[in-house]
Amino acid sequence: MKKSNTVYSAQALSDRGFFGRRARGRAAGEAEASPNFFCIFQRCAAYDKRMSVHFKRIIPFLLLAALVLSVLIYPRGSPTEASQSIVVRIWNVDTFEGGKGSRASFLKRVAGRAEQEQNGVFYHVTVYTLHGIREAFAKGERPDILSFGVGIGSIDGMIPLGESFGGRDIAVPWCRGAYYLFSLSDNLPEQGAPDGRTVLSSGGTNLVEASAYFAGISGTTEEALTAYLSFLSGRYDFMLGTQRDICRFASRGVNFYSRLLPVYCDLYQYISILSEDKLDVCQAFVELLLSEEVQNSLYEIGMYPAKGAQGRSVDFFSSAERLSEVRSMLRDGTAERQLDMLFPMIG
């Protein structure tokens, strides 16, 4: 019987696995086995595997639920924070020669500073030719701010700036040039210039002939670079030019003599606002552009501050065609009868 019990107990132990054991202090043949941990481990592993598969299936649903809850529960910003950024379009068109560098690049630097002072406002400067800007306006496209010179023509919808120039408050100059009489020797006359020995440098829609008229100078009109080279070669003794020629002389290291011709000037780059919807941010840019600090940095591009402009000029909304007519009137002598109308005083 003991043998049978022993065999039975071994069988029982075998059936119960390798972790069965006899209870100490109990009767012989009475076997007590502990739970079969190996089987439990296998069952737990199988259960974990089934749960893992199940959990992987529901992960996408859990993520979707979390996303929906975050949208519903997460605190939203204020209306101002949620609003879109403001983009201010600035168009620049040059109609006369500047100094050195680019007026558009100068505007971009001012725009970068204005953006630092205003959160969520961006100023985008675009360069246009006179022909290109006319086409854009013809298509109904308009900037928020316009920087321009003479020859662009009349433009509707300009907003008063709060200050005036030449009797108008819808455009003011933000930089200007000047006319000069140049000589390569110390023989500049105090007034006028000898006939037949002067070249007039024409670099755009500006009226160099008007400057010559009011300075009592007569000469031959040539394109700006041609006039400059002719003057350097000695073909002419004098040249009526602009601030651009001063920069040309400096870049070549040319020694020269000059006399400012202050009676007439149309070398103004104007600024205007055309957007009512973005009026505040447009005004902020114009105020910065006209600020003393920015104006004092115009030497970087070889131009002069707008403050202090005086003398005569043309209507700054004159078209290129109208300026061509005035040029012809100066040449044939008919402009003299309409000087005050054609060339009003600006200050």
Alpha-beta content class:
alpha/beta
Q: Rg to the nearest angstrom? A: 43 Å
- Give the CATH architecture of the domain at 85-175 and 269-310 and 338-342: 3-Layer(aba) Sandwich
Number of helices: 12
Helical content class? 40-55%
Strand content: 15-25%
Number of strands: 10
Do you know the CATH topology of the domain at 85-175 and 269-310 and 338-342? D-Maltodextrin-Binding Protein, domain 2
Quaternary: single chain
The major β-sheet equals: 5 strands, mixed
| Spans of at least 5 consecutive residues with low confidence | 1-41, 71-82
CATH top level assignment of the domain at 85-175 and 269-310 and 338-342: Alpha Beta
How would the global form be characterised? globular
Spell out the helices and strands N to C.
HHHEHEHEEEEHEHEHEEHHHH
Q: pLDDT average, as an integer? A: 84
The CATH superfamily label of the domain at 85-175 and 269-310 and 338-342 reads: Periplasmic binding protein-like II
Strand order, largest beta sheet: 2-1-3-10-4
Distance between the termini: 136 Å
Describe this structure in words.
Among the domains are: 85-175 and 269-310 and 338-342, Periplasmic binding protein-like II (D-Maltodextrin-Binding Protein, domain 2), CATH 3.40.190; 179-261, D-Maltodextrin-Binding Protein, domain 2. It contains twelve helices and ten strands. It is an alpha/beta fold. The model is unreliable at 1-41 and 71-82 (pLDDT under 50).
